């Protein structure tokens, strides 16, 4: 079996035109032309041959060396997260996903191992991330065109470099792309304990924007509140605390928010809308409760709310893709300075199945799992 | 009892700053200073002293003459509609409404009866409408500042001049204000038999925009379909016809719409969203089913829909208020040419209670009621 490195996207939403991603796995095999070319080391990869339950369809396999073509870079992976969207891709329920057989994973970080003959501006040992992310990061060696790779500062903690795109960039873009916020303004969000939620609190704080945060009622919610306040949250409420006639009466010195974020749906989304000011905007980027968003007619007509959605994938195919690189650099700078933090657990690659079980929720609430190669 | 002509708005949403509307009824009484000033004729008005069921709280009363001040115009009303929002104001359930005691009505048309000494640009006999509309049109003589009145062409059918603001202007602004549409594009709407719905069909047609229309399942729906097609509707479906896996498979040569209008809520709103293309916009301007709009998380994230609301009242307090006058002239031009039509029933003022009962739905489905003075 050849190294799984470039896989076709099923264009379920729209055709994806990145040439490197359009190389089909099977076509790829036939392009291995000569044993005299530069070759990657053999790789160990988490592969699935059909979509389904991730804990039964994924296997760790050894894949042989492949050619590193003149414009390609072979990267020795250092770390890669297991994100919910990675799981949804393997389950076959995510709109944009690779054709099987496929290697799991979408973001990650590695160091340059070897370079194709025409590659410029990279050296062995450079810390690089696929930017925008690219399928197949759950393996020890990844070979992709140099345009896929973005160099990051060597002092960057690998777990932040590995996870900067999917969560922190979502937080940053959502704060930038919908409403012009100024210091002293506020935002409201539910699912505030999620990594995106924690990033929103910290990124807002840096800009002088106050955050109103809604979390679930559950054992440990007092502890969760304290954690979020330490990150810079101005107000944290559980959903049950908001069972009052006028939620805005709970805001002491915080102005009504003009922007809200919803990653839960159901009642938690309704609460975000209740906090919003006249003509405010709510951005939905997740649906953790699996409940829809329900909106009264008067919220549209008399309160003039705008409801929008955010999906990083749409950004990647837009002109903003390039702009993301400087945002990534900004976010990783904050991570290096300790100004952007979130809890993660690093698990050795050999224990992948344990990390997967934790990510699937089979072992209760667990921190974000980062595979360390 | 003095002539009820200028009434304060309760600022339930925000303060309204039009000076003429801020004159309080009772203050008004004290400004009648001299019997030598120009006076209006006595007026017959539909008045309510408290909010409640319109058929029990409204009474037709005679109100004495008042002074016509130097900047005011006395208008002899010719026609005024009973709109659902007029009813909601009397019921006390509309966010912006006059303080009681109040004269009912909000839009209408009349002819200039007499002018204050400083009024320029108007002559007795001119056809005028309050533009933007102004409380208290259900009476035979209305006295307001000249800035309230907008002159319209004398050939205009009074029933169209009386109704042009609330419904046709809503249709026109909704087609203009949310998405840039080009000839060949399409829109989708529910509640298509409403007057706004009929206006949307005709105004879209004039611009070469195709319309997909959704109506309720009920006796006479085949006849309703035919009527809408005669107005220029490209496709008309009942809700039950859209119980198919992919509603878009029903569109023959019409492109997927980028813009949808919802005045119903519930399933009818979901159907509008199903027709919309990726990144489409749905504008809610009514909730006839009294059911909320329910939206899946994936409609926001993966389909990237935007959900907005439209309320004419917001427009009036924005900079677009002035721009509305040229739109009104455009719409009345179409009405004069027979290119904008909708069914109305003219009822003599003396039979106001019958017109009100019809508007309240007490006599089954009835055309829009226009009071003819």
UniProtKB/TrEMBL annotation, chains A, B:
Molecular function GO labels: enoyl-[acyl-carrier-protein] reductase (NADPH) activity
All copies of domain Enoyl reductase (ER), residue ranges: 52-371
SMART domains per UniProt: PKS_ER
Signal peptide segment: none
GO cellular component labels: mitochondrion
SUPFAM superfamilies recorded: GroES-like (SSF50129), NAD(P)-binding Rossmann-fold domains (SSF51735)
Family: Belongs to the zinc-containing alcohol dehydrogenase family. Quinone oxidoreductase subfamily.
Name of the protein in its database record: Enoyl-[acyl-carrier-protein] reductase, mitochondrial
């Amino acid at each position: 079996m050849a190294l799984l490195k470039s896989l076709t996207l099923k264009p379920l939403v729209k055709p994806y035109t990145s040439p490197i991603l359009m190389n089909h796995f099977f076509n790829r095999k036939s392009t291995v032309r000569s044993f005299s070319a530069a070759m990657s080391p053999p790789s160990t990869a988490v592969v699935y041959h059909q979509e389904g339950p991730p804990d039964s369809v994924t296997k760790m396999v050894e894949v042989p060396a492949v050619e590193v073509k003149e414009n390609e870079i072979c990267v020795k992976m250092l770390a890669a997260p297991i994100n919910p969207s990675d799981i949804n891709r393997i389950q076959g329920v995510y709109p944009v996903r690779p054709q099987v057989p496929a290697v799991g994973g979408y973001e990650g970080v590695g160091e340059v191992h070897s370079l194709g003959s025409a590659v410029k501006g990279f050296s062995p040992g450079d810390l690089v991330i696929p930017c925008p992310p690219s399928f197949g990061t759950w393996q020890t060696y990844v070979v992709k065109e140099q345009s896929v790779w973005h160099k990051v500062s060597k002092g960057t903690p690998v777990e932040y470099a590995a996870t900067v795109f999917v969560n922190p960039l979502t937080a940053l873009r959502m704060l930038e792309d919908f409403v012009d916020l100024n210091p002293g303004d506020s935002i409201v969000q539910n699912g505030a304990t999620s990594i995106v939620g924690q990033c929103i609190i910290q990124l807002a704080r840096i800009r002088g924007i106050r955050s109103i945060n809604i979390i679930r009622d559950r054992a440990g919610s007092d502890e969760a509140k304290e954690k979020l306040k330490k990150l810079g949250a101005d107000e944290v409420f559980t959903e049950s605390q908001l069972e009052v006639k006028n939620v805005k009466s709970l805001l002491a010195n915080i102005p009504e928010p003009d922007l809200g974020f919803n990653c839960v749906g159901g009642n938690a989304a309704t609460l975000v809308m209740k906090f919003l000011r006249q003509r405010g905007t709510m951005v939905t980027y997740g649906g953790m409760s699996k409940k829809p968003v329900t909106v009264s007619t008067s919220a549209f007509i008399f309160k003039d709310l705008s409801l929008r959605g955010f999906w990083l994938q749409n950004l990647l195919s837009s002109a903003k893709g390039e702009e993301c690189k400087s945002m990534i650099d900004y976010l990783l700078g904050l991570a290096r300075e300790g100004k952007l933090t979130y809890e993660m657990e690093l698990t050795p690659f050999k224990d992948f199945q344990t990390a997967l079980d934790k990510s699937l929720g089979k072992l209760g609430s667990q921190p974000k799992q980062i595979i360390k190669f």
